[in-house]
Amino acid sequence: MIRGMVIDMNDAKLKTLTQVKEFLEGTRDVEFQVLEKDRYLFIERTLGRFGYERLGRKEKGIVLRYVQQMTGLSRQQVTRHVQRFRETGTVTLRYRAPSKGFRKVFDSRDVVLLAETDERHGTLSGPATKKLLERAFELYGDSRYERLSRISVSHLYNLRGGAEYQKKRRHWTKTRSTNAPIGERRPPRPEGSPGYLRIDSVHQGDQDGQKGVYHINAVDCVTQFQVVATCEKISEAYLIPVLEEILEAFPFVILGIHADNGSEYINYTVARLLEKLRIELTKSRPRHTNDNALAESKNASVVRKHLGYVHIPQTFAQEVNSFCRDYLNPYVNFHRPCFFSETTTDARGREKKSYPYRNIKTPYEKFKSLSRPGQYLKPGVTLEQLEKMALAQSDNEAAEQLNNAREILFQSLDDRSRKRA
């Protein structure tokens, strides 16, 4: 086979279809290709020379094979050019690039606004960020977001990859996540009702042999309503008061708690507390790594994103817990969009999960969308109170307040640590 050769070929001597057929059979292992700039003229000239319109089906096939081999185009492409020739008598390139280039929809102000939004909210996924941009304009009436509220997810990532955005942003980067006759080994079964929590612990690192604080992260299975609390240690004396605070912080009645097999939760003290409150305790099964995946994913996307990996001494547990209660939890539940899945079952009975854009909501919006949500609320808690909390600030204002509070917190911890040293 001959490859890589450029041949200046004159096909004028191919005057009959018999000659064309013999040419095709004799050059089956040779690759010819008309220069790209001459393709359209060659197709037009060939179709006209052999009177394509008057040929029978078999003869037309020979001409098409010849054009296809000489131009390197696919059969579908050649067929489209032939159709154009039959309609207009010519074969020309229809598409032409705009002489002045494509019109820019989003200008530098939009890029800066997107960068500021990402900085406030910790660079969420594209769909979640798009939802924030829509809410900023449609729900909170911020006219600066009018154009960005209509951006597609794919183009949002294009803006993030541009030099203008990169100049504005500076990124942060990622840590990771016995037998006792207590609790039942199974996943929770909420059946669409809120009040079934998945819970996990996040340790804030060691330094010079000293343990850091522990964050307790509890997430509702159905609504993704989340409460993060901080304690000095995860022994029973420190954990039980924080666990009670977490249960009290949820606006709806808690019916179940699911944990992995860590001894901080699978112990008789916790079991007695939950039994007293009529809350069922379940624990993860062996070889089922997804049993507590919801809480573990929130460890990374919420706890680590906002509290980082740096060692925080245990003596500062109370200040960090106040930050979580006053700023982090309200932001996460009323202003941070989450993905919610839809499950479909195919003919074989296999389940497949998808995450459509229309299902991206804040945990409070998800709770509100349940059938008769008021029936799940604790006594003394009303939907009107929750709605007032949700609308007290815009998403951006809540994120700004959260970031300012976090900066003040960590500056205070740093100053006090230096004085101790």
Structure description:
- The protein contains 15 helices and ten strands.
- With 421 residues, it is an alpha/beta fold.
- It has three domains: 17-88, no CATH class; 108-168, no CATH class; 184-345 and 354-420, 2-Layer Sandwich (Nucleotidyltransferase, domain 5).
- The strands form three sheets. A six-stranded mixed β-sheet has the order 1-8-7-2-5-6, with helices on both faces. The chain has a two-stranded antiparallel ribbon with strand order 3-4. The protein has a two-stranded antiparallel ribbon with strand order 9-10.
- Strand 7, helix 10 (268-276) and strand 8 (280-283) form a beta-alpha-beta unit.
- The termini are far apart.
- The CATH architecture term of the largest domain is 2-Layer Sandwich
Broad structural category: alpha/beta
Dominant shape = elongated
Strand content: 5-15%
Low-confidence stretches: none
Sheet having the most strands: 6 strands, mixed
**Overall radius of gyration:** 33 Å
CATH class of the largest domain: Alpha Beta
Name given to the CATH homologous superfamily of the largest domain: Ribonuclease H-like superfamily/Ribonuclease H
Structurally, the number of domains stands at 3
Report how far the terminal alpha carbons are from each other: 78 Å
Mean pLDDT: 85
By oligomeric state, this entry counts as: single chain
Give the H and E element order: HHHHHHHHEEEEEEHEHEHHEEHHH
Please bin the fraction of helical residues.
40-55%
CATH topology of the largest domain: Nucleotidyltransferase, domain 5
Identify the strand order in the major beta sheet: 1-8-7-2-5-6
- The strand count comes to 10
Number of helices: 15
